[in-house]
Amino acid sequence: MSEENIRKKIEEALLEFEEEELAKILRDSINEGVGPLKLIDILTDVLRDFGDKFESGEYFLPQLVAAGEAAQGAIKEVLEPALKASGEAREPVGRVVIGTVFGDIHDIGKNIVGSMLFANGFEVHDLGKDVPPEEFARKAKELNADIVGSSAMLTMTMHEQLNVAKSLENEGIREKVKYIIGGAIVTEKWAEEIGADGFATDAVEAVKIAKELLGVM
Ligand code: B12
Question: Are residues 111 and 68 in the same domain?
Fold first, then answer.
């Protein structure tokens, strides 16, 4: 199968939210000798394209979310093990720990940010939703993360973003990591108030800021 064909099939599977079909396409391509790194490049390129189409209004949010989830599932199931086996793993541009703050179960935006960071070469450790502040700090320390990102969608839970900053201090890693925040209620003023290194109102901006903070082009 040519690269163009693989891309087309991946795109179709993502549009149909077919995680199993996607996994099959990736497995078949690997069996035909296509490297897992190449497949990640194709897959992330398709995801980036979906992101652009969402921004321009061509695709809708559920498509973006479902595509992101299907891609993440297939990457974990097929590509990550294949990469490990082939020894082809590349150095990530940075390591990110991300999650939705304690008391908050909104995770659609956070998942999109995670997918986009992954698509742009970051190693992403997603802690999920309703994550206690200490967990962000503990995981960031354990993994020697470069960036910690927290998402908050409720007025009621935004103070937890401050608690994450405090936990990073308590763990003694606040100076070592860049802390970025996001979510519908987050403003530049709030980011400044809690001493965050950056904030973003969408996933494209989040990638831009993450790269800038690490000096990656
Ligand atoms: C979907 C949704 C839900 C779903 C969540 C499903 C899920 N799996 O996420 C459900 C139904 C569960 C839900 C529940 C509730 N919700 Co709700 N929900 C929404 C809704 C409609 C959309 C949110 C969304 O997904 N937006 C789309 C994504 C793509 O945008 P985003 O989240 O903003 O993310 C982008 C950016 O913010 C940024 N970003 C996000 N995270 C991060 C992280 C980092 C590090 C960075 C850099 C950037 C970044 O990039 C993202 C991608 O572009 C909003 C309304 C709205 N318009 O925001 C209300 C809303 C957030 N919910 C609200 C409320 C009140 C609730 C409930 C309390 C309702 C209730 N009475 O039970 C519960 C809370 C439960 C809880 N404890 O969390 C209010 C919050 C009001 C406020 N100011 O506090 C809102 C604003 C609705 C409203 N107008 O009243 N909700």
Answer: no
Instruction: Indicate if the pLDDT at residue 30 is higher than 80.
Output: yes
Give distance in angstroms: CA of 18 to centre of ligand 1: 26
Distance CA 200, CA 126 (A): 18
- Cβ proximity of 98 and 114 under 8 Å: yes
Closest C-alpha to ligand 1, atom 91: 106
**Whole domain around residue 52: which residue ranges?**
3-86
The residue whose CA has the least distance to atom 35 of ligand 1 is 109
72 lies in the same domain as 167? no
SS3 content of the chain, % helix, strand, coil (to 5): 60, 10, 30
130 pLDDT above the threshold of 80:
yes
- Residue 33 and residue 15: Cα distance in Å, rounded? 25
CA-nearest of 67, 41, 74, 38 to 52 is 67
pLDDT of residue 84 exceeding 80: no
Backbone conformation region of residue 139, classed left if phi is above 0, alpha if psi is from -120 to 50, else beta: alpha
Q: Compute the distance between CA of residue 27 and CA of residue 74 in angstroms, rounded to an integer.
A: 10
